[in-house]
Amino acid sequence: LNSKWKQCLLKQLEDYITFVLLLKTPDVVLGEKLCGDNSRIALYGAGGFGQILYKTYYDSISMWVDQNYEYYLKKGFLISDVTDLIKKQEQYDVIYIAIINMKLCKQIESSLIECGIKKKIKYFDRNYTFLRL
C-alpha cells in the first residue's frame, strides 16, 4: 500500500476502535470529560450512545432529552422533549450531546444556543485521539 492509502486505512481503523470503545467502555474513553466536576448533566440523545452514557453516568444525569422522545417514552425510557432544556435550565449545569457524529453535534449546539441555552455544551470530540496506531 502506498502511504496515502495506509494513512486513510489507519484513520478508519482508529475511528472504528474509538467507536467500539465508546460503546463498550465510555467511562474509560471519556474519563473525567463527561462529569468530572460533579456537574448535573442534561443528556441529549437516546440512541445507542446515549443509552450507554445514561447507564454509565446515571447518578450525574438530571435530565435526559431527545427529539424523538415520544418514541423512547413508549419504550419505557424516562425521557423528555428537547424543549425542556430551555424551560428547565435550572435543573442542570451542562449539556452533553450523546451523538458520535461531530458535525451533527455542532449543528445541535448552534441550534440550542440560538434557542437561548446559556449552559455549557459538550460532546465527544473525534479529534481527541487517545490511540496511537
Gyration radius from CA atoms, angstroms: 16 Å
Q: Summarize the biggest pleated sheet.
A: 4 strands, parallel
Structural class: alpha/beta
As a percent range, the share of helical residues equals 40-55%
Mean pLDDT: 82
Outline the low-pLDDT stretches. 129-133
**Number of separate helices:** 7
User: What is the H-and-E element order?
Assistant: HHHEHEHHEHE
- Beta-strand level of the residues, as a percent range? 5-15%
Number of strands: 4
Shape: elongated
| Largest beta sheet: strand ordering | 2-1-3-4
**In whole angstroms, how far apart are the ends?**
16 Å
Outline the fold blueprint:
Layout: H1 3-24, H2 26-30, H3 32-35, E1 41-44, H4 48-56, E2 61-65, H5 69-74, H6 83-87, E3 94-97, H7 102-114, E4 120-123
Parallel strand pairs: 1-2, 1-3, 3-4
